[in-house]
Amino acid sequence: EKGGHEYFMLKEIEEQPEALANTLRGHFDGGRIILDEQRISDQDLRDVDKVFVVACGSAYHSGLVAKYAIEHWCRLPVEVELASEFRYRDPVLDRATLVVAVSQSGETADTLEAVRHAREQKARVLAVCNTNGAQIPRESDAVLYTHAGPEIGVASTKAFLAQIAANYLVGLALAQARGTKYPDEVAREFAELESMPAAVQKVLSTVDQVRDLGRRIADSKAVLFLGRHVGFPVALEGALKLKELAYMHAEGFAAGELKHGPIALIEEGLPVVVVMPSPKGRAVLHSKLVSNISEIQARGARTIVIAEEGDETVRPFADELIEIPAVPTLLQPLVSTVPLQVLAAEIARTRGYDVDKPRNLAKSVTVE
Ligand code: M6R
Predict the structure, then answer these.
(1) Is 363 one of the annotated active-site residues of the chain?
(2) Looking at the chain, which terminus has fewer C-beta neighbours within 10 angstroms, N or C?
(3) Cellular component terms, GO, for this chain's entry (predicted)?
């Protein structure tokens, strides 16, 4: 069943190109982005003036990633909220608010309650869900299904990548409805998304290198993760994977925050994973991260750098270099997350833990 793998998670990591392709399939037709179920009028979609993404855990991280794309494409403010916080703080919602509820299971209690609260306040709710007919999509005004297939491992992998892709489709659907992108631009963005399964397939060639690295750092006390821009939520996701699977202290930071506290944590030999933006993207982001890495390396950190292939500037600062294919900046999380999933799984396995069923966790959290 595990397709010859030691654990399901590795099988599911390798299924990610397919999960992405299946999630995108059929959503661009006749020159338009199409949702699965739309019980909101086109006019209502056009009138949206604010977006909230509500979710928990990895699904929340997929929303943090999507914020960069949706704001950029749609010129709409996007807030990303932990579902468990959302309804207790009296968020400002009305009929021009679109609440995007992201949930693999579609049954997460906090996310479901956030959906109910949003609808009571007359907001429109769009569900991004991996489970056909689950409660969250049933109670929503629109639905976009991710087609990652059943995810057995408690740690989300292929569902997370599929959530990012689906959230991006939501962004493109909004840009199309609002006219902030011309039809040919929407088509181009969709084509870029369609090229991602091949890019993820390529990044899977790093699995052996990353597993080997995982075995070598498995006895570390803690691991830190740093990123900027879309690399920041990737850092959060990498840390979550490591906490839940390897029971290790792991934290993700925005690299710009280093000097505001976290740099005090750096000590000799501490592994720090850095998610580098493309050197061909925004040069300022790249050069700031290079200087962050040199600072932490100078303080003794063991730097593990995820960088675009051919990024030579970063090489001198990388104790370990994991190369990922060149892709557009906004889509980089779809490739940069993959080595972090493998790293967490392999560290957990080396420490003797059950990668598919980590302690104290359930696949679907149906109590608040
Ligand atoms: O089913 P959901 O997407 O609503 O689940 C949300 C979280 O419970 C889930 O992503 C959790 O954080 C995973 N174990 C992370 O790997």
Answers:
(1) yes
(2) N
(3) cytosol
